[in-house]
Amino acid sequence: MKSICLYFQIHQPFRLKRYRFFNIGADHHYFDDANNEAIIKRIAKNSYIPANNAMLQMIKESNGEFKVAYSISGLALEQLEHYCPEVIDSFKKLAKTGCVEFLGETYAHSFASLRKENNEFEKQVEAHSKKIESLFGQKPTVFRNSELLFCDDMVDRVLNMGFAGMLAEGAPQTLDWKSPNYVYCSAANKRMKLLLKNCGMSDDIAYRFSDWGWREFPLTADKFANWIMNNPEEQVVNLFMNYEVLGEIQNANTGIFDFFKALPKVAASRGIKFATPSEVINNNNPTDQISAPHPTTWANATKDLSPWLANTIQNEAFNKLYALTDKVNRCSDKQIIDDWYKIQSTDHLYYMSTSFYNQTFCPYDSPYDAFINFMNVLSDFNKRIESFFTADISEEELNSLVKEKLALEAELAALKSGKKITKSEAKAEKTTKKAAKETKEAVEEKQVVEEKKVKKAVEKKPVAKEKETKKKAK
Amino acid sequence: MKALMFGWEFPPHILGGLGTASYGLIKGMSRHKDIDITLVLPKPWGDEDQSFLKIIAANKVPIVWQEPDRKFLKDSLEGRISSDEYYHFRNCICEDNRYIGTNGIGSVEFSGRYPDNLLEEIRNYEAVAGVVCRSNNFDIIHSHDWLTYDAGVKAKQITGKPLVIHVHATDFDRSRGNVNPTVYNIEKYGMDMADHIITVSNMTRDTVINKYHIDPRKVTTVHNAVTPLSREILDIKPNNNTGDKIVTFLGRITMQKGPEFFVQAARQVLQRTPNVRFVMAGGGDKMAEMVDLASAYGIVDRFHFTGFLKGKEVYEMLKSSDLYIMPSVSEPFGISPLEAMQCGVPTIVSKQSGCAEILSKVIKVDFWDIDAMADAIHSIVTNDAFAEYLKVEGKKEVDEIKWEYAGDKVINVYNQVLGYK
Fold first, then answer.
1. Nearest neighbour of B385 by CB, restricted to A316, A366, A372
2. CB of A183 within 8 A of CB of A149?
3. Do B268 and A376 touch (CB under 8 A)?
4. ipTM value of the model?
5. B388 → closest Cβ in A21, A312, A366
6. pLDDT (tens digit, 9 = 90+) per residue, A296-355?
7. Domains (range + CATH), chain B
8. Structural contact between residues B279 and B246, judged by C-beta atoms closer than 8 angstroms
9. Beta bridge partners of B141
C-alpha cells in the first residue's frame, strides 16, 4: 500500500538589528524585535493559523486517516510563545489528535552537527526534545537536521541520541539512479533508516503550484493523486516543505488550502494512505543503503551547503562563532545561553551568501552588511562571556583546568567499569565527584586570588616609583 | 570608419580621470581594425602613445592664413605635425578667424589645462575644430566632456556628419547642485545638438535625462573600465613601517569627493580602534578645511595628509594601504576604486558613485552615512579574513572589467547612429 508522508518545517530566526561597532561593549540586545514580531505575526495570520485549522479539520473529517508531521525549531517556538501563543495552542490541539508527529532537530536551527569537536549538537537536540515534550507531550523519535542537512558523519551521533530514523534530501549526488520513494538505511550505520524527500513533487506544490507558465498548471488534488498512483510499486512519497507554503509562499488566493483539504479524500479513493515518518520507518524495511560522504541539504539548485557556507566570509563567521562553544558552555547565565542559541541559526549565514542573494525576508542591503553586523554582535557576545569570568584566566590555564577535569572524569569512568557498583559505593563516588569539583573550584579560586595579587602589585609599583622620584626631587 | 574625436587630456599628462578614460576607451576601440581614430588635443606634449590613434595638436593647426618662413615653421611645429600637414590644414581655412589672437604661424596657444580663461580656450578650440573637420572625410564626430561639446557641434554643422557626445561628468556632479549657468548652457546645447549621448553610468544617464531634459532614447550608458596594470606597477612593494592598518582617501580634496565624511568616519573609528591610521592623499581647495577639521577632532596624530601625488606615487600609496575609500557625494563613474582593487586593496565606495553600479565585491555605503562607513572600516581593519576576501574577490572582479567591452559598446552606438544596423 502506498503512502504519503507529509512533513512541514517551521522556523523563523531572530533577525539581528543594525548593530554598529560602537555598540560593542555598550549594548547587549542584538535583535530587531519590532521586525521579528511583525514578520512572525504576519506569517501566523496568513499561514500558521489557517493552516493549522485546515489540518485539524482534515484529521476530523478523515477520522484520523490523515497524518502529518512537523518540525518546529526552538527559536520559532520561542517567538510563537511570545508573540502568537494562539498558534502554540492550536498545535497542542493537533498533538492531542494523535495524528501528528513532532520531529527532533537542533534547538537553534543551527549547523552545530558539522562541528565534531564538542557536544554542542547533542546539547541542542536535547534542549529541543525537552521543549517539544513539555509543550506537546511527545518525545521526538525521528530526526531532521537544519535545512535537511545530512551526511554520513552525523549518523552515529544521531543514533546515540535515540533516534531511529532521519529525514534527508533526495539529492541527486547521493541518490543517483535510485528513487526517493522507498525507505533506505544509511551506509554508515544500517540501524539508521532514512526518508528522502521527493524533490520534484514537493517543489510542484511548494514553488510551482501557482506558476502560470508551468505546463501542469493548474495542479489539482486529483491530478496529484494520479501521479502517485501511477508510480509503479513504490512505498512512500515524502513531501517535505516549509509550512509557509500554505498561505505565505503560495497565498490563500491560489487555492493552496483547498488543494490540501481535498487531498485526503482523493487519496483515500485511490487507496493511498497517509503516514507519519515514524510509522513509515516502523512499517517498512529498508530497500537499500544510501551513502552521503559530503553534506547534502535542501538548497534549491545545488543540494549542498553552498548557500550557507561557500565564501570565505561565511566560513569565517561560522568558525569564529563555534570557536566560542567551550567558553559558552562554562557559563551558566541564562541570557548568554539564550543569545548563544539565537545567533547560531543558519539564516545569519544565508544572509552572507554572495551567490544566492534574492531573499525576501533578508534585512540587509548586501552580504557584506550582514557579515559586518554579525561580527559586531559576535565580538560583543565574546566580551560578555569573557567578563562572565571575572578573573581573566589565560588560555593555557584554562586548558590545564579542562585537562584536569577530563582526567578526573576518566578516573571515575575507570572506577565505574572496574567494579560493579553497589549503591553505597555509588554514593561514595558521588562524594568523590563532589570533592573533585570542589578541588577544581578551589584551584580556580586560588588562581583568581593570585592574579589579583599580581595585579595589585603591578598597580603598586608605579606608585612606589613616583614616591621615589618625589623624594629625589626634594 | 573614420572617427574624429575631440578630447582635452591624454596620458601621460593628465589632470583628472578624463584623460585616463579617453585613453582606455580609444585603446579598447582600436582593437577593431576598421576603426580609424583621430583625436584633437589642445596641447599634446609629444610623448603620447600614438600607436593606435592619430593625435592632432590643436595649438599647431593654423586658423589664420600666414606664410611663415620654412625654418621658422619647422621650429614652431616642434614635430607635433609635419609641414605638409600644416599646409594641408591651411588650405582648409574657410572662415575669418582674425579676431582671435594667433602666433606667427597663425595658430592659437592653448594651456591644455583648466585655466581661468577656460571659456576663451573653448571658443578657440571650436575655431580649430572648424579647420580640422574639413581636412579629412570623417564619418562620425565624438566629443569627450563639456569642454569639447562646442567643437563637436561646430564640426557637425560644417560637415553634416553625426555627433556623439560622451558625458564623463555633468556640472551637477562638480557643484553639488549649484550649477554654473554658463557651463549648463554649453552642456545643454551640446546635448541638444548631439545625435547620440553616451554616459559613463546610469546615474549620469538619469541626470542627463532629468536635469537636461533629453529624450531617453538618445542616451546610452557605457560604463568605464580600467587598463591592466603594468609589470612595473605590479612590482611596487607595499611600504608600511608603522605596523598599523592604513585607510586611504585618494583624490582631489574638493566638495564633490566628500572628504569631510572621511574625516568624520575616521574620528569614530579612532575613538574605538587602536592601530589604524588614516591618510588623505591628494590636493584641492578643501584641503585647508580638512586639516582644520582633523585638528578640531584631535585626531591629527593618526590622520595624515600627503598633498598631491603623481604618477607612481599614487600606486605606492595604494599598495601600502589596507583599505581604500571613495566617499564621493556625486561621482559620475570613478575609476580610482577600480585601480585600488587592481592593487588588491579592499574598497568602500559611496552608493552615489557610478562605479557602484558595476561592482559587487566592494562595500557600498551612502556618502552621508558616517556610521555605516565607520562600521565597515572597523570590520575590515579588525577582521583579516574579511579583508582577504574583498582583496582576492575584488581583484578577480576588476580584472574582468575591460576597456575592450566598453569599446565594443561605443562602436555599437556608432553603427546605430550611422544607420548601419
1. A316
2. no
3. no
4. 0.81
5. A312
6. 999 878 899 998 999 899 999 999 999 999 889 888 889 999 999 999 999 999 999 887
7. 2-225+403-417 (3.40.50.2000), 231-398 (3.40.50.2000)
8. yes
9. B4, B163
B-chain residues near A27 (CB < 8 A): none
The pLDDT of B189-211, averaged and rounded, is: 96
pTM to 2 decimals?
0.81
Contacts of B413 by beta carbon, 8 Å cutoff, 6+ apart: B164, B196, B198, B220, B222
Measuring CA to CA, how many Å separate B241 from each of A462, B277, B337, B347? 31, 12, 24, 21
CA dist list (Å): B123 to B106, B143, B148, B169: 16, 15, 10, 20
- Using a CB-CB cut-off of 8 Å, the residues of chain A touching B272 are 21-22, 24
Is the distance from CB of B165 to CB of B198 less than 8 angstroms? yes
Give the Cα separation of B337 and B321 in Å (integer).
Answer: 12
CB A309 within 8 A of CB A318: yes
Instruction: Tell which residue, B167, B184, B122, has the closest CA to residue B148.
Output: B122
Task: Indicate whether A248 pLDDT > 50.
Answer: yes
The span from the CA of A237 to the CA of A277, in Å, is 11
CB count in 10 Å sphere of residue A233: 8
Q: Residue holding cell 513509515? A: A280
Give percent helix, percent strand, percent coil of chain B, each to the nearest 5.
45, 15, 40
| CA-based R_g, chain B, Å | 23
B375/A376 touch (CB, cutoff 8 Å), yes or no:
yes
**Rounded to an integer, what distance in angstroms lies between the CA atom of residue B286 and that of residue B255?**
7
Distances (CA, A) of B249 to B283, B325, B346: 11, 5, 12
Please indicate whether residue A147 is annotated as part of the active site: yes
Residue with the three cell numbers 562646442:
B150
Q: B292, B359, B382, B279: which is closest to B325 by C-alpha? A: B279
Write the DSSP assignment of A300-314 as a string of letters: TTT-SSTTTS-SHHH
CATH number for A3-290 (one of 3.20.110.20, 3.40.50.2300, 3.30.470.20, 3.30.930.10): it is 3.20.110.20
- Mean pLDDT score across all residues of chain B: 93
What is the reported pLDDT for A464? Answer: 47
Nine-digit cell string for B47: 610623448
Please give the angle made by the CA atoms of A9, A107 and A379, to the nearest 5 degrees.
120
- Closest-CA residue of B relative to A357 is B360
Could you state, in order of their start, the residue ranges of all structural domains in chain A? Answer: 3-290, 312-388, 395-473
Burial readout B159-192 (b: 16 or more C-beta within 10 A, e: otherwise):
bebbbbbbbbbbbbbbeeeebeeebbebbbebbe
How far does B130 lie from chain A, in Å, by closest CA?
Answer: 51
Q: Largest Cα–Cα distance of chain B, in whole Å?
A: 73
> A193-196 and A183-186: which strand pairing?
antiparallel
Residues of B with CB under 8 A from a CB of A: 268, 271-273, 360-361, 363-364, 371-372, 374-376, 378-379, 383, 385-386, 388-390, 392-393
Closest CA to A217 of A255, A266, A260, A272: A255
